[in-house]
Amino acid sequence: MQKEKVIISYAYNGLIYFPLLLAERLKYFPPHFELRFADGDENALKQLTIDDAQIPQSHIAVCDPLIFGNPNKFSGYVETGSQSEIKVIGAFIQKPPMWLFNDSTIEPVEKEADLIKHAGIHKVRFYEPPNTGYLIGKRLMDMIGIKDSQTNAKAVKFNEEFNQPVDPDEIIVTSNILRIAEIGFGKKNIVFSYPSKVNGISKLLFTGVLARKDVLDNNLTDVISFLNGLKKAIGIAYSSDLDQLTNEVYEIYKSIITDNNLLSKEYPEDKIRTFLHGSLSALRREKIYSEDLVVSRKGWSNISNLRRKYMSSWHSPSLSSISEKLPLLFLKNTWRKDITHYSTRSVIDKILNFFFSWNFWTAAFFIGFLGVILAFSYLIYCFYMSFSSFSSTMNIVFSILLLFGFTILLSHLHCLFEHFNYNKNGNIAKVVSLNKRLITFMGIEVTFIFGLLRFYFGANI
Question: What are the residue ranges of helices labelled H in 260-389?
């Protein structure tokens, strides 16, 4: 029986999104998956929330994860479309893929703070709101001390930031690394690189993976298959031979480059390949993609703070209220895939949400650590009182080691679940090889339990 088509809307077809398109080309997604270019973050969200007769509703969106924070637009989407919650289920781009460009008249700097010393910067050109490039541009103006005016601040559409000549005292905030490669990386035109240089927003959730709650409930295997395919493509982007990667990306982008004016003019194939090779090499160095797809609290906090500061009407929900963690998705998929009763699934969801909440693991670690301190204090007391039984003292040591091992286990368990690998069916693959540390700690725990038994029961084990 033919499976229902799963539609993934994505906001941008510039080169920084290439792992997503590469996953499709390399068939890392199941055959019933379809990528659909939405031409903008708001359109990607609209396609996720509204079931239009002409544009079928998508199941997943790859876009700015906080784009739904616009109360004037998102409220309309929900009222006319699906009432299901929107969940952030993964991080695609975890650093701001933004570069400050000038036509070689402003010297490059290693730290963002050093831009303050450049007395020659008086203008900034950036993307239109609500894009993240707009927020970074406004932040840059504040930091340098440039007054906000139509002359000093120019907001432009994607792929139009290079349409006008660059003034000597002007900085362009751009994510079009292909255009920078066309101009030439060796000409000192990149004044500053946000992904790799020292700055206050080096961790920032720039692009996320979003899904509706009903999709997670009814199509969870497909969701995890998508995340797995994207994760594999990111691995290829970082580790494969650069020449082979360039060949694959060229086949994907040869028509996109022309149709979307990613370069200033038409070039022969060998030139385009050269530009792509340089851009892919730079993206590999900059490490902008999240290899484990995990949404970091710092990245969420930075983008939320920027939106609250420079777009006061924007609503930035907390990460805990809007995200679904990857281990939760795996566990739900494994433990409840054959459960159709809604109330039973809800109970399982609540149990998993509790055990994978940040507060639970913080409390568990604290209790374990407190246990180690108390046991260690008791050991010192025993020695101080000239406790004579050597065997009893050794059993106390065993107990301390047990508590210590348990504490370490708690501290590692959460992050180990975050790094599970998924196969095409959305199930875990190679559990043993991926969790050697966890298995080692489990072995140590067994040894310590024997010591605890001796201490409490005097068993000669």
Answer: 269-286, 297-310, 319-322, 326-335, 342-355, 358-384
